[in-house]
C-alpha cells in the first residue's frame, strides 16, 4: 500500500468534507474519539472482560435486568448509535478484538 498523497483535488475535497463534518458535529473530533474509546474500554475492554466469567460475563454482554445495567448489546444498539458504532469499530481495529482471554 502506497503512502503517497492522492490527487490534490481529491485530497482537498476529502479535507473539506472532514472539516465540514467536524464543524457540524456529524463527525467526531480526535479528542471525542479518544474519550469515547476510553469509555468503551473502561466498560467492555479486555481488562474488564478477563475479570468476568459465567453469568456475570453473559450479563455484561447481553443482560438487561435494570435501567442501570447497560450491556454491550444495549450499548451498541441504543447509545448514540453513530458514536458507539464508530468507537466500537475503532477499538476493534486498534486492538484486534475484544475477548475475555
Topology:
Layout: H1 8-24, H2 30-44, H3 46-49, H4 54-62, H5 72-78, H6 81-95
Helix pairs in contact: 2-6, 5-6
Give a verbal description of the structure.
It is built from six helices and no strands. Helix 2 crosses helix 6 and helix 5 crosses helix 6. The protein has a domain of about 70 residues. It is about 65% helix and about 0% strand. The chain is elongated. The two termini are about 30 Å apart. It is an all-alpha fold and about 100 residues long.
What's this, in brief?
This protein is mostly helical and 101 residues long.
Mean pLDDT: 75
Low-confidence regions: none
| Major sheet | none
Q: Rounded to an integer, what's the Rg over CA atoms?
A: 17 Å
Q: What fraction strand? A: under 5%
Number of helices: 6
Tell me the structural class. Answer: mainly alpha
| Distance N to C terminus | 32 Å
- Strand tally, please? 0
Helix content: 55-70%
| General form | elongated
Write the element-wise H/E pattern from the N-terminal end onward. HHHHHH
Summary tags:
single chain; 101 residues; mainly alpha; elongated
Amino acid at each position: 500500500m502506497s503512502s503517497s498523497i492522492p490527487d490534490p483535488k481529491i485530497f482537498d475535497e476529502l479535507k473539506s468534507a472532514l472539516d465540514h463534518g467536524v464543524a457540524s458535529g456529524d463527525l467526531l473530533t480526535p479528542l471525542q474519539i479518544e474519550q469515547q474509546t476510553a469509555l468503551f474500554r473502561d466498560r467492555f475492554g479486555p481488562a474488564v472482560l478477563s475479570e468476568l466469567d459465567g453469568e456475570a460475563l453473559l450479563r455484561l454482554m447481553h443482560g438487561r435486568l435494570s435501567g442501570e445495567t447497560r450491556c454491550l448489546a444495549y450499548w451498541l444498539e441504543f447509545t448514540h448509535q453513530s458514536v458507539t458504532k464508530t468507537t466500537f469499530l475503532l477499538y476493534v481495529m486498534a486492538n484486534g478484538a475484544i475477548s475475555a482471554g
